[in-house]
């Protein structure tokens, strides 16, 4: 990606090409990926609510994190869902870049764009502190909080040149462990301010597991990728987004293998205890380690590349399950979280079942959510200027 491009320069030349079918196809691939991880996420949230053996000590804040037993089926069920949060945050950045910079082409006032981002970001962040927290029975600064605040932070950051955004994102991923160590010495909690920014905190009434800066780095990286898609659509780059994804995915997984194999810096204090496959994959999510970034983003990049390849061959079904779920992600998230958390919290169903029930409940919820999400998509499309445009 060229270091010379700014926000406006490549966009003004792209013009109608940006809104062409070619760019629309890329958005379809993004929705597929988002929908795919929604399906994975529902399994994790069902396990969080009902599975008595749910594993969630993915952080050095827990004293037993490095030595705890990691039963294969339970661990794999937890591990596959690690892909969800980085996917949401990365694709938020990519989708915002495509949407915002198209609006720039149309001549939309900069303040109008900023106001829309600020409003949407605030609403998304507040959903965690209101609806989700009420359903869970404690103050929850979760993934919606990280996404919303990251969106707000992108208002000034979007004005940076691409090289500067890339430097900030990659720089944090490689050096963030050093800075985090200044404010947090595991095991145990950090301070609340440190948890909001770089570390984590958990008590019976307050949980902060998604610090802003580490997740903002992923959204910035997503924005950089969105800019590259625009440049390629405008014939200003000869490297397709798909080829970027193949290359970055391979490099990321190699980086993961090297860093995890060293059992040192890059693990965010959660080092590999032995050579079992569980220990290799038992990386720190709270906060994200370099090994977590490399593994999850590597998988994400390769999945996106595969989906783009499939899309070029088979096209897009408007009512395909992943496509529908990807287009209604926020509705999907709120409905299923409340459907799981309310009975678990207020009706005594927390941690009373096993892994079989987790998958059974997840399957039933997916069947119910598909027609509901199709309905919501229709309602949202029919009211483009309502508050639904922010969700």
How does this structure look, described?
The chain is mainly α and 391 residues long. Helix content is 68%, strand content 2%. The protein has 15 helices and three strands. It has helices spanning 9-14, 21-50, 72-80, 84-105, 110-136, 143-157, 162-183, 192-197, 212-233, 241-262, 277-281, 290-314, 321-327, 329-346, 355-382, and strands at 139-141, 201-202, 206-208. Strands 1-3-2 form a three-stranded mixed beta sheet. Helix 6 crosses helix 9 and helix 14 packs across helix 15 (355-382). The longest helix has 30 residues, at 21-50. The chain is globular, with a radius of gyration of 20 Å. It starts with 8 loop residues before the first helix and ends in a 9-residue tail after the last helix. The relative contact order is 0.17.
Keywords:
mainly alpha, 68% helix, 3-stranded mixed beta sheet, 15 helices, 391 residues, disordered N terminus, globular
């Amino acid at each position: 990606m060229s270091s010379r491009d700014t926000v406006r320069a490549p966009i003004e030349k792209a013009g109608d090409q940006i809104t062409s079918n070619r760019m629309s196809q890329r958005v379809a691939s993004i929705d597929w990926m988002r929908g795919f991880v929604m399906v994975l996420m529902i399994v994790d949230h069902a396990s969080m609510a009902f599975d008595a053996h749910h594993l969630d000590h993915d952080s050095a804040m827990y004293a037993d994190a490095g030595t705890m037993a990691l039963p294969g089926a339970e661990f794999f069920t937890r591990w596959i869902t690690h892909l969800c949060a980085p996917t949401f945050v990365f694709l938020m950045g990519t989708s915002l870049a495509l949407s915002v910079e198209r609006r720039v082409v149309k001549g939309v006032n900069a303040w109008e764009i900023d106001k829309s981002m600020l409003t949407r970001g605030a609403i998304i962040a507040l959903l965690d502190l209101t609806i989700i927290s009420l359903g869970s029975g404690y103050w929850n600064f979760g993934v919606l909080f990280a996404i919303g605040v990251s969106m707000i932070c992108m208002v000034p950051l979007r004005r940076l040149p691409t090289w500067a955004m890339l430097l900030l994102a990659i720089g944090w991923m490689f050096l963030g462990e050093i800075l985090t160590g200044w404010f947090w010495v595991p095991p145990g909690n950090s301070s609340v301010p440190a948890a909001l920014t770089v570390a984590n905190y958990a008590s019976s009434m307050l949980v902060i597991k998604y610090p802003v800066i580490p997740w903002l780095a992923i959204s910035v990286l997503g924005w950089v990728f969105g800019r590259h898609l625009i440049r390629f659509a405008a014939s200003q780059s000869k490297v397709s987004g798909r080829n970027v994804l193949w290359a970055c995915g391979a490099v990321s997984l190699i980086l993961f293998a090297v860093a995890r194999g060293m059992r040192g810096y890059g693990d965010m204090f959660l080092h590999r205890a032995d050579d079992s496959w569980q220990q290799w994959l038992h990386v720190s999510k709270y906060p994200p380690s370099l090994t977590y970034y490399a593994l999850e983003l590597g998988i994400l990049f390769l999945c996106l590349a595969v989906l783009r390849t499939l899309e070029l061959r088979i096209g897009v079904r408007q009512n395909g399950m992943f496509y529908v779920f990807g287009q209604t992600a926020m509705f999907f998230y709120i409905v299923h979280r409340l459907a799981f958390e309310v009975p678990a919290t207020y009706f005594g169903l927390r941690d009373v079942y096993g892994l079989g029930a987790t998958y059974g409940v997840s399957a039933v919820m997916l069947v119910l959510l598909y027609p509901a999400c199709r309905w919501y998509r229709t309602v949202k499309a029919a009211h483009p200027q309502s508050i639904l445009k922010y969700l």
